[in-house]
Amino acid sequence: MSMYDTLNSMQQEAVFHTEGPVLILAGAGSGKTRVLTHRTVYLIEEKGVNPYNIMAITFTNKAAGEMRERIDDLVGFGSESIWVSTFHSTCVRILRRYIDRLGYDTNFTIYDTDDQKTLMKDICKRLQIDTKIYKEKSFMGVISSAKDELISPEEFTLRAAGDFAKEKQAAVYREYQAELRKNNALDFDDLIVKTVELFRTDAEVLDYYQERFKYIMVDEYQDTNTAQFQLIKLLAGKYQNLCVVGDDDQSIYKFRGANIKNILNFEEVYPNAKVIKLEQNYRSTKSILDAANGVIANNVGRKSKVLWTDNDEGEKINFQQFDTAYEEADYVIKDIQKKVKEGTYNYGDCAILYRTNAQSRLFEERFVVNNTPYKIVGGVNFYARKEIKDLLAYLKTIDNGRDDLAVRRIINVPKRGIGATTLSRVQTYAEENGLSFYNALKLAEDIPSIGKAGVKIKPFVTFIQSMRSKVEYLTPSQLLKDIIEETGYVAELEAENTEEAQARIENIDELISKVVAYEEGEENPTLSGFLEEVALVADIDDLQEGNDYVVLMTLHSAKGLEFPNVYLVGMEDGVFPSYMTITADDPSEIEEERRLCYVGITRAMKDLTISCAKQRMIRGETQYNKVSRFVKEIPRNLLTGAVRNPSVTKTLSEAPTQSFRQANSKVNPIFSTRNTYETKPYQSTSFSSNTTGKISLSYGTGDRVKHMKFGEGTVTQIVEGGRDYEVTVDFDKVGTKKMFASFAKLKKV
């Protein structure tokens, strides 16, 4: 029997069609890697193609390594001549030979992220740019996006005319590129950009590589950006033997520059292209695939295809709606334990997928309580994340100041210009006089060896002392919000305007929610008590041994993976899809979120549980969310359980919350009747002497109002409090919210 007989009919067609442009639309779990490797063998053995003339290109070193290994196993002798590489590695090899034709030396340096940061810092200083307002990372992001689209500094400058902010970005871009050139250096984006420039300006070099790569295969084509598209188009320009493999329904990296139009418009670029659809799935049950098809069919910008399988019908999708996110997490962990105990699955067969990293916190804490092995994949455990450790260090310093490590961690967060030498001298003084590091800082101006540097230390000490004076009358959550506001921690992240910064802000929001949840579960909440509770979770080492642990990861990290038992959590409008997506004017935003949901569903092989909560605490505020629109797009006959929405006219008591310590002591949850309201972002909710009198309202129950963030909605209830009004609004797009009137600043419409 031939090796090709193991392929299904469409896979065979994809392997045997070797000449001219080919678009292979490979659905999730349809065996695209087998097609690529068998196609390579077929080119060599059946078509007589020299291995030297074959190129297989993908995105990551891991993917390239796996492809290389499989090709080597199938091809055997001569396989080393096949060019299997990533985009960036390919371009480095080409530029090392020919970049001198662009005026660079071939021994150019490649700048990593740290090198870029250092250079950008120097440029901002030279151009007298205030980096408290315009962050270096923000400039780096803008420049990277421009290079993804092959926009040169000169073109960027022309486009920026008349826009002050963009003109500043253009000036930085020009200076940045000039410095790279002067240093004979390229950043990672330049590797692609300069190779495209080389091919466009030097016909001899282009012809050499077109002759070298007569047959080109590109994996994960839906993830290519404009620069990568042009690179491949130039390389394949002569022989047109270009085979691209991808799935437009799994294009989820727009934020990294991926351009879905590259795969959607392939036939426009190559009118004679052969399109082959791999729709047979080998991974999942029929129920799971039908659910995925039901969701993704709602996207307009996609190629028509329907996944199917010869696998069993399988269990229906288990849909669970809970009153609170806490109950959701508790259910998931107990369900996993039950299935492991029954022998249905091992821990390693189970995965919990969520939209944002911040959502991991509740699950991590429940895993620790229940002594269940777990691992965060593609991320860091919640309490080990930099921003969380920074803010906890502030709280520890305010609480007692005896934790030298905590004090040293935050002495320059944000930057205060206190040098390592100064800190070393303070440490020496502390040791010589039997003082804690913080107490030595309080005496900094009296330490002879540090001289004028003591002036820089004083504001830090003053801030800590002022926060200590508030401990008795502010709650821990109010203290935390004051720290965030006074230090400008979140403001700095917002100024960066990057995906990474946004994720860190979401983690901080989750920390605030953790503090508020602690307060609601304690009769007499204190800062010391909160830090003690956190320590029980944060200081426990990884529980897992070996590889048998539950995996927690974001949906973006899960792409390309599969698990027998999957939990897709937080499926609420406002969480997934996010508020920003729901309220965006661009319909392509919601389509990208829907593709992400499709990716999540198709990770499941046998069992899929989808869950949501009626109310969830975000940034210390209780938010009432509707069931995700994506859940409602799944055919009802595929779901067990009922899709219910919380009433917007009924007053709901606060969700049952439970502190970590109580859960660990097997104490029943405490039901609190207090409400958590929306506050002005990252500011204390305490009403101090500057709050005088009660505000007056220009609207009443039943009126239509508008909120700056949430848009328009209907006021369903107003409750008079001692200092303010509690207003409940059913917003058209984001569901029901409760908030303080003074902070919400609602306007009647």
List the helices and strands and how they pair.
Elements: H1 9-16, E1 22-26, H2 32-45, E2 54-58, H3 61-75, E3 83-86, H4 87-98, E4 109-111, H5 113-126, H6 136-148, H7 153-160, H8 164-182, E5 185-187, H9 188-201, H10 203-212, E6 215-218, H11 226-235, E7 242-246, H12 261-264, H13 266-269, E8 274-278, H14 286-296, E9 317-324, H15 325-341, E10 350-354, H16 360-369, E11 374-376, H17 386-399, H18 404-410, H19 420-432, H20 437-442, H21 454-468, H22 476-487, H23 489-496, H24 499-520, H25 527-538, E12 550-554, H26 555-558, E13 563-568, H27 579-583, H28 587-601, E14 604-618, E15 621-624, H29 629-632, E16 639-640, H30 660-664, E17 704-707, E18 711-720, E19 725-731, E20 735-740, H31 741-744, E21 747-748
Parallel strand pairs: 1-7, 1-8, 2-3, 2-6, 4-5, 6-7, 9-14, 9-16, 10-12, 10-13, 11-12, 13-14
Antiparallel strand pairs: 14-15, 15-20, 17-18, 17-21, 18-19, 19-20
